[in-house]
Amino acid sequence: MHGSCLCKKVKFETIGDPLSFVACFCDNCRKSAGSAFLSLAFFRANSFKLTEGKGCLTVFNDTCTTSGNTVARSFCRECGSTMYGELHGRPGIVIVPTGSYDDRIDWVPAMESYPHRKEGWLKDIAIPLKPKPKA
What we know:
- With 135 residues, this protein is mainly beta.
- The protein has one helix spanning 27-33; strands spanning 2-4, 11-14, 20-24, 38-44, 48-52, 57-62, 71-76, 82-87, 93-97, 111-113.
- The protein has one domain (2-116): Metal Binding Protein, Guanine Nucleotide Exchange Factor, Chain A, CATH 2.170.150.
- The strands form 3 sheets. A 4-stranded mixed sheet has the order 9-4-3-10.
- The model has no long low-confidence stretch (mean pLDDT 88).
């Protein structure tokens, strides 16, 4: 699947389905998205390829996260779109905000991170979670 920033100067592609798809309600994800939550797809680094605009990226090392893990958040310095993140504690994993995909995705979140931090108006909106596989 292909994705890009708002100004189309940064482009990427991912191969296959994500390892995990999460709706995150932590304060840092909400602030970086400018929204009530951020939907994130986790991929192995070899399933993510930056195809254009590497020179347009700026990295913000987010050190004050709820989890305590530093997140290197890469964004387009031209339009400000968040493009991907990398957790310093989980090398080899790339986190892609799903709103940056050019086409609609059909994945369903497997979990919610920090659901206790949901905005009050979201508590009545159910995000259907993908059932866990039976062992």
